[in-house]
Amino acid sequence: MVEQSLSLPIEPFQRLQVNDGLLLTAERWRLAHEYHRKRQNVHYQSLNQAGIVSGLGVCLIAAPDEIATEHRDGRWLQIQQGVAIDGYGNPIVVPQAIAFRIASPAPLSGSLTIYITLRYVDPDRLQGQGDRDLVQETFRIDETSTLPSRDEVELCRVQLIPGEVRLLPAADVLNPIANTLDLRYRQWAQARPIQQVCLAQVLTKAASQMDETVAYSLQSLVRSLPAQYPIMEGTMIAPINLAVADAVSFPADLLYFTRQQFLTLDAAEKQTLQRHVATGTVILIETSLEESEIAELGLIRQQLQTAIASFAQETNAAQMQRDLEVELAAVEAALNRQIQDLLVTVQAIAQEIGITTDSTGTLGRDHPLRSPFLFAQFPSIEGYPVHLFNWGSIVLSIGSLSQAWGLDEALSLTRETIRTAQEIGINLLHFSWKRRQLTQLQMSAEF
User: Fold this and answer.
1) Contact, 186 vs 156, CB < 8 A?
2) pLDDT tens digits, 292-340
3) Residue 145 in 3-state DSSP?
4) pTM over 0.85
5) How many CB atoms lie within 10 A of CB 405?
6) Contacts of 128 (CB under 8 A, 6+ apart)
7) Non-local CB neighbours of 245 within 8 Å, separated by 6+ positions
8) Could you give the domains of the chain?
9) Which of 272, 287, 299, 289 is nearest to 345 (CA)?
10) How far is residue 116's CA from residue 94's CA, in Å, rounded to a whole number?
11) Which residues contact 324 (CB under 8 A, 6 or more apart)?
């Protein structure tokens, strides 16, 4: 069954059939207008995501004069006027500034995060509105300790700690501390991403601890999406442990393996992975230069290429250039043998989980992994070119591709290297999303 990040009612619209002589009653008038409201909300939900349209700033104020003495403390906020749209497509208009007091008690230990949210209120559900010709759509400001739901728009959050609660403006708005306003998580109303992709690391019996370096790389790739490919939204889920029987119940478009993890899978883990593949999940296997033992050969090849280029400028160095070219051909042949050895080991495991690997796995000109960002040649990272191979649900990456999805510790990677690596990563996510989506579309709801 196709999974949708957006839950819309799967039911046909019904509208009033108007004919001459139709008696116009209050109920029929309500039905006619309800039809248009529903269509408007569905249209908005389908193409946009909820959030703040304008205004709705939050600032600290002194308690209003009319407030009783026991409530005149440092807990007062002012919600400024503005407009928002909730997750159901309802517009929320705050016409004037409103004072609001945070009532939650400070925790006895640890910390407590409080969310200030805005919620649409349908006037039809309010009492005392039946005898009016005009009713005003309104709103409610809530204080909650749980993450905002679909019908709530977050305005700010505050982390409370033990002791007296006395709110302060954040001295550093990008790094607020406890008892200060945190506005970093406000969402803005905007076009909704079309593609929702989910990715995760894999844990196995042989590698049961999460690799923090890999987690950082995957998260960096997800964070690059809004700027580089806004029609896609990525989500990192908790690592999937293939040793757990119900591991397949977690939806994922892309599962990340190291080559060593993939080669050490036991029979039960291969069976679980086979069930993932059956739902359309793509497996990314990455072989670093160190793991593949081709780093040294790659460095030698790079040095030879540099030397040949320098001798090409000298008229009396033709023999030296030919000797270097012969040596370069030998190094490239050794590299190709190393790569073929890597392919054979991965192909053997792939066949055990039901993936056909009859082809060479090389990517043709029209292969989907070469788009949406077009690549004729994949770039070099750490002096060695990235190689990608694909057999059905398996993508093998040779080279340190994921290490260039984020900033390295030494901050030595160039912007061009990071940007290019992220574009290849987005191609991987796009390929994974599309493969799983099309697989799910032809599966029965009972699968």
Assistant:
1) yes
2) 567 666 667 667 777 777 776 666 667 777 777 787 788 777 777 878 8
3) coil
4) no
5) 23
6) none
7) 272
8) 26-191 (2.60.520), 195-441 (3.40.50)
9) 287
10) 14
11) 304, 307, 308, 311
